[in-house]
Design brief:
Number of strands: 13
Structural class: alpha/beta
Number of helices: 17
Radius of gyration: 24 Å
Shape: elongated
Mean pLDDT: 97
Low-confidence stretches: none
CATH topology of the largest domain: Rossmann fold
CATH architecture of the largest domain: 3-Layer(aba) Sandwich
Largest sheet: 6 strands, parallel
Order of helices and strands: HEHHEHEHEHEHEHEHHHHEHEHEHEHEHE
Bound molecules: nicotinamide-adenine-dinucleotide
CATH class of the largest domain: Alpha Beta
Strand order of the largest sheet: 10-9-8-11-12-13
Helix content: 40-55%
Number of domains: 2
Strand content: 5-15%
CATH superfamily of the largest domain: NAD(P)-binding Rossmann-like Domain
Amino acid sequence: MAVIADRCPHVDVTVVDINERRIAAWQGDSLPIYEPGLLDVVRRARGRNLFFSTDIEAGIRGADIIFVSVNTPTKTFGEGAGRAADLQYWEKTARQILASATSDKIVVEKSTLPVRTAEAMDRILNSNDRGLHFEVLSNPEFLAEGTAVEDLEQPDRVLIGSRETPAGGRARRAVADLYAAWVPRERILESNVWSAELSKLTANAFLAQRISSINSISALCEATEADVDEVAYAIGADSRIGPRFLKSGVGFGGSCFRKDILNLVYISQSYGLDEVARYWEGVVRMNEWQEARFVRRMLATMFNTVAGKRIALFGFAFKANTGDTREAPALAVTRHLLAEHADVVITDPEALENARLDTAGLDGRLTFEADPYAAARGAHAVAVLTEWDAYRTLDYGRILASMERPAFLFDGRNILDHAKLFEMGFNVYPVGKRAMSHV
Ligand SMILES: NC(=O)c1ccc[n+]([C@@H]2O[C@H](COP(=O)([O-])OP(=O)(O)OC[C@H]3O[C@@H](n4cnc5c(N)ncnc54)[C@H](O)[C@@H]3O)[C@@H](O)[C@H]2O)c1
């Protein structure tokens, strides 16, 4: 919404949220999320045509177009628990729009939703007896955290789905016109509403599938002395495959991949398509296996016990350039290590607060340290779990000097110079590559 406000100065954008703390943070310079370049965008538009408020009713009344971007987590209870999307926030919002609206609205699904949700929303919204008309569109968000501003300013495509009726077409054009202020028209794709909804789930499923595919090969590389980066490079040179999203590591995280695939699995099952469901479920299973396999390798390498050993985790965010830790592989690794009674210390340049919150209920010896050098001091092992640039350029000689011997380095993101670290004296364990060990 900040980018829309920035690029469309003639349009007033009001962001409303029930979370007062978040809205207050959006009004200051310490934004509630870390995203490179976002503060500049917000500062340019804030107070001009970008406003933040907790007055949801007024926000609804004043708007012609409402982008609904509420959370749609995986259900934790009842039918479909662990797979289906929890639509309670979306439905509450729809009912609130219905209660507060005094004029016709275009309601845009910006949240990621199961296919055919728009139909249910349409029924709820248009069940009013006040003569109001609501047109429900699907405009899924394809941004990636860490590069959100860039992705929004130069999107590969914008997708807008609507009903195939004259009113649906008019609403679709109104939203397309907003994006056309900065997105070339040929990149604004239009479709029916179900295709738009399903495209978002499918895009995430395909992206995650590439990671699980290369991670499955990383295990085979470790067993055969092939090198996963060499394999990824060789296959990525095939223009049909392409080089991106083939980086092997400890596993994918983030709030979306897992939940969206599970959602796809659940929808497939609900249509009786069990083979389809099982196929995509494999992507999630492979990811869980990779996280567990990473810890099993640590354990096997460190003489089958990490009990009482200090282990420093470099990075907790699910990827670099974000403070977001949702579904981060680091959380699974932390859990496994604590279960083995390791003394775990977490460091991260942006995600330490979230790491604290995520691990609050865990039993065991767990500490947090902003400084990576202090985190590594006295450690038996360092495990790199987030590909922060800062970790590439640390003084590893200094780190080694402060660690216990033998000193192990598990590079869960394959970002370090392994040969150099080995020469220095580290025992180096990358993912999908030959280990380099002195012991
Ligand atoms: N985070 C991403 O990278 C990303 C990318 C693409 C799509 N999405 C989708 O966007 C949606 C939101 O994701 P997110 O990561 O921003 O989630 P989030 O949990 O960070 O934000 C959701 C916000 O909605 C607010 N909210 C909940 N109910 C509300 C209500 N009734 N009225 C007003 N505000 C309400 C919450 O307070 C919260 O601030 C999800 O469906 C997600 O799948 C997220």
